[in-house]
Amino acid sequence: MRTRLEATVxxxxxxxxxxxxxxxxxxxxxxxxxxxxxxxxxxxxxxxGSQEDVNKxxxxxxxxxxxxxxxxxxxxxxxxxxxxxxxxxxx
Length: 91
Description:
- This protein is 25% helix and 43% strand.
- The chain is an alpha+beta fold.
- The chain has one domain (2-90): Alpha-Beta Plaits.
- It has a 5-stranded mixed beta sheet.
- β2 and β3 (43-50) form a beta hairpin.
- It is globular and about 30 Å long.
- The protein starts with a strand and ends with a strand.
- The model has no long low-confidence stretch (mean pLDDT 97).
């Protein structure tokens, strides 16, 4: 079963290659979506894929890369929209 995740990641998550590593992990898992820095210092992620793979990405988002400090992840689940064909970093 496919699902869609929207997640806002709070903490020290900008300037630590968070978007780069998120894209790398998502691509390894075959997940489609986007990752973007937000003006308030958070990172916003959309991800569509199998429930199992999206759960794996979410577990990674809760830790982040080595230089990051994740304080909290706000999660919203929904049905996939099928609007993307890869996983991209939005600038």
